[in-house]
Write a structure and sequence with these properties.
83% helix, 14 helices, mainly alpha, globular
């Protein structure tokens, strides 16, 4: 691999950084400080698995990762803590689908902020990709889709509902602790009443993948300069983050929010207190991380 391939890794870094950081906030990771403090290494390993970094290129990538984390630590973590504080307070009253919608809008806004901050680096990625790299990207997307089908779309409908329910319960227990048998039965009924939407999510995933591939091919074929590429990427980012509010996605999105609102309504005061205690720990972790000097 030649040194000219350094810039594509920047775009990959930003996409993975966004996924990791946002997951920490909304998925309830129990090891935020450990994961965040080791995020530079985790990202480097991920990048190396995709592009096989060599020699001086590795040093450049590591320094670039450090810069991204320094920016994020200094400018974003206190805000993430404030978002968690807002979610914690909402548990003191009824959590309606509208309240969850507002919270998710806040999460999306922070994700978009991070992605837009990375637009110049993403532009360097798009402008520097070689044809074989674009081909590798398409192959990787295809493999990921095959894996998704195998994990989430195999078996009969009842088996797929059972898998979905188990995954839901794993996530809920992180937030609320244990559930009674009666609660689990009620959640199972709510879960099974939802349509199996794995195909919907796969099609949405593939749409995003096509958007990325089409974008980089357009940049290459039209030989766009950096300002034009940045503008194209910024428009794509905004369209992607706004997609949940489009008519073809809104019904499914609203149904998901109602589902989780119904589940929260089933929880006891003790379970809500458990979730609030969890969130307080994450708030303290975020604020501590923001104060720590990055090494």
């Amino acid at each position: 691999m030649t040194k000219s391939n350094t810039q594509p890794t920047a775009g990959h870094r930003i996409r993975v950084l966004f996924a990791v950081l946002l997951a920490l906030v909304v998925a309830g990771c129990t090891t935020i400080r450990f994961t965040y403090n080791n995020g530079d290494t985790l990202l480097y390993w991920w990048i190396n698995a995709y592009v096989d970094l060599e020699g001086e290129q590795s040093d450049v990538v590591k320094k670039d990762i450090d810069k991204v984390f320094a920016w994020h630590r200094q400018t974003q973590l206190h805000d993430y803590a404030a978002l968690l504080q807002k979610a914690k307070q909402q548990l003191n009253g009824p959590v309606t689908p509208q309240a969850l919608h507002g919270l998710m809008d806040d999460v999306k806004a922070r994700g978009q902020r991070l992605a837009l901050h990375a637009a110049p680096q993403l532009a360097d990625l798009a402008r520097s990709l070689q044809p074989d790299q674009i081909g590798n990207l398409e192959e990787k997307f295809a493999k990921n889709n095959r894996d998704y089908r195998r994990k989430f779309m195999s078996g009969d409908p009842e088996q797929r509902k059972k898998i979905r329910y188990k995954k839901t319960m794993e996530q809920l227990k992180i937030w609320f602790g244990s559930f009674s048998n009666e609660q689990e039965d009620a959640i199972r009924r709510l879960s099974d009443a939802r349509p199996l939407d794995n195909e919907v999510w796969l099609q949405e995933r593939m749409r995003r993948q096509r958007t990325i591939v089409d974008l980089v091919k357009r940049v290459q074929s039209q030989r766009l300069d950096k300002p034009a590429t940045v503008a194209l990427i910024e428009n794509t980012i905004r369209e992607t983050f706004n997609r949940l509010d489009t008519p073809e996605r809104k019904a499914n999105y609203d149904a998901q929010l109602k589902f989780y609102s119904d589940i929260i309504r089933l929880t006891t005061p003790e379970q809500k207190a458990h979730a609030q205690q969890r969130m307080q720990g994450w708030i303290e972790d975020m604020n501590t991380l923001a104060r720590e000097k990055q090494t």
